Every structure is written in C-alpha cells, then in structure tokens.
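Incident review: delayed structure delivery

Summary: a single-chain prediction request sat in the queue longer than the usual turnaround. Root cause was a stuck worker, restarted by the on-call engineer. No data loss occurred. The affected request and its eventual output are reproduced below so the record is complete for anyone auditing the incident later.

Affected input:
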Amino acid sequence: MFRIYSMKGLLLGHNLAFLLLIIVTGAMGLLGVELRQRAAEESQRLSSLVNLVHETRGDVYRQMTEVFDHHFLAAPRAATEYRVTGNRIAANFAKMEAVAIHPAEAAAIEGLQLAFEQVRQKTDLIMTRLSSAFREADHLVVVFTADLEMVWLADYERVFTATDELMSIAQNAEEARVARLSRTASLILLIPVALAGGLLLISRVFVQRAFVRPVNALLAGVAAFGQGRLDHKVPESGATELVTLQRAVNRMSEDLALSREALVRSEKQAALGSLVPVVAHNIRNPLASIRATAQVHDSPEVAPDVAQGLKDIRGTVDRLEQWLSSLLSYLNPLQLARSHVPLADVAGTAIDLLVPRIEEKSLAVQRIGWDGQSDVTVDIHLMEQAVVGLLSNAIEASPDQGVILVSIKTPENSVQLVIADQGPGMPFRPAPGELSPGPTTKSYGSGLGIPFAFKICDLHHGTVDFEPGADGGTEVIVTLPASEAARSAA
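Output delivered after worker restart:
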C-alpha cells in the first residue's frame, strides 16, 4: 500500500473513496432515471400506437356510414365527410409509421394499410356513382350488410385483430420490462449502500491500525516513562507521522536514560570528590608520621629483619600515598589545554618515561606505523598520563624479555594507538565510568590507570577499547578524532 499509513495519504484515500461513492451513487441514480424515462416513453409510444390503430378503425367504420348515407340516402354532406374522414385515416397511418420503430410493428401497420386500401378502392368506386335511393328499407339493410360490412371489411377486420393482438403483446412485454427495470433499479441501489458499508468497515480497520492502537501504545509508553521505566520501548507502528513521533519519544527515553546515568555518575563522582580530599588529608598525616618514624629508626645498627620490616613499611606508605594522589587526580575536575600534536610524539614521551621499568624486565618495544600522519588535538600532559597508565599495565602483564607492540593507525577521520602485550590476558573487560574496573596485580599499581584513561579519552571525545590479542595477551585501542589539518590532508 502506499504507505497508506501516512495521515495525508489516508485523508486523500478517504476523500477519494467518498468521491467515488458519490459518483457511483449519482451514476446509479442517473441510470435509474434514464431507464425509467425510456420505459415511460416506450409505454407512451405503444399506447399512442394502439390508440391510433383503434382511432383509424373507428374512422374506417365512419367512412362506411358516409358511403351508406351517400349511396342509399343521398345525403348532401356524405361525400365531403367521406373525404375528411379519408384524410384523417391517411394522417393516422402516417403517424403510425412515424411512431412504429420495430419491424413487426411496421409490418403490421403495412398490412393494415393494404387492407384499408382494398376497402377504400371499393368505397371510392361507390362514391363516384349517383345515389340509387332505394325505397325498400329491408333490402337496403341486406345489401349494405352483405356487400359492404360483411365482405369489404372482412380482410380489414382480420388485419386489425392481428395488429391489436400484436400491440397488446408489445404492451404486456413493455410492462414486464418496466417491472424488471424496477427490480433491477432496487438491486442497483444496493450497490452504493454496500459500498458505503464497505468503506465504513475499511475506514474503521484503518483508523484502528493507523491511529487508535498506536496512540494507545504511545500513551502507555509515556505513562511508563513517567513511572521511571525508561527502558520501555513504544512500538513503532501506525501512520507515518505517528511512527516519527514514536521514534522521537523512544530517542527521548534513551537520551533521558543516558542523562540519568550520567547524572548518577556525576553525583557519585561529586560525592567522592568532596569526600576523598577529606579522607586523604586525614590519612596522609598519619602516613607521614608512620613513614618518618620508620625512616628515623632505619639505621645500620638495626637488625636485618627489622630493617626489612621498616623498608616494607615505607614501601606500603609510598604506595598508599601514590594511590591517594591518583585518586585525587581522577576525581578532580580537569581543564584541557589543547594543542595540535602527533599522537606518536605523545606515545613516544610516555615510553621514554617508562624506560627504567622496560629495561628492568628486558622488554622490547616495537613501533609500527609511526611515520604516517597522526595529528590530534589533545591536552598533551593529560594524554601522556593516560598512555603511561596503559603502558604500565602492558609492562606489568608482559613476561620478562617479552615484546610490546605499539602501533599507530589512521582509520577515517580518526587516529588509533594500539598497545598489544604478550601477557596472560585480562580476566575482566573494563567498562567506562567505573571507578574500580577490576582488580590490580601490579606491585605499585593504584588500580586507577584504566579509569583515568577512560576519563581523559572521553574528555577528548575518544574511546578506549580492550580486546584479546590474536596470539594471547591484550590489545588496548585508544581512538581519538584526527585534527582538522589531518582530515584536510586525508
């Protein structure tokens, strides 16, 4: 269907259907009127023809009367009336020929006219003679009856009877046709009624499917959103305009869900941000005292096991101090100072900062794809800290004398830094926004390197993904938008 589910399309279809119904109803009405008009005209024509036949028969007998009056009574006006009546008979035959349209009617009128001509030839002959003026009345009746009425008009009466029967049959047939037309007209009138009923039924189905049900589903969805169930999805069905509205409502619920999650994270981070500095201050003072005490008591005269214990105390205090510093760096709001720089330079600086740890484990760092265009717009120092944290994880996970691959890739409109180690792989998959994405096994780790990298990349509209390596280990993929200059060059 043409997305008949468009409101404009439905309205157009509805209007066209009603227009079609009006046209069909009008056509049926006009057809009925036309059929009735034709039936009435045909009935009138047949009645006129029958009347002319009967009128002509009467005129023929009146002519016979004039013949009688002329021949036997010597009536002075008989000849004149005979001619007038003859002219009227001729005019009636002309009218009958004009009215007759069927071959059977024309044949009957022609036979009637021939019979009349035979009678007229005999009466004309009598009318040309002088009156006999017989005196014997009884003989007059016998002669008139035998010679004129019984003999001369016999053929005419036979033809007249056949013609009258033909006209009666025609009238009966016409009446039957009119009755059939009346029944047919009644049936024809049912067509618009059926069309109207069908249109009403179809309209109801379309309205239910295109409007009523989708609107009810939309109202139910809005009620669900009002109850806080933002994961509810409004079914996208119905008219195109309603589908557009339903999609907008679904997108709005998704945006609200994301906004709510972001708000919850922001509130949690704000709470931590206000709480952690207080906790850090209250912890740092005792830690400083503990470390100072351990350092004061550490002297050459102390027994080896005591010296080792004091060293462990200082190491533990240093790790706690590093963890507190990392936590404060993660929670504090960051202001970016963006600069255009190749991502390879940022990664190179991070590698240089970790050279002592790399050499300590005899690791080899292989750089792949560093010669290409890799310009990004970032806060150099924050991005270096993020890359240092990710490289530290790779170094910690790698076996001694292992290899770390650091690759630069440039997919469309972005730059990727891929760090692949040969470690045992990560037992969990870190997720953005988690303060503690997983346990740390590093000797000096704070457990905040990955969350910090997530935060920094998110501030730069980038992403951090973790994938298992093809040959074991873990691949960390940092994706950042390419700078405008790099995009133009591409």
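Verification: Residues 334 and 456 are 9 Å apart (CA to CA).
Action items: add queue-age alerting; document worker restart procedure.
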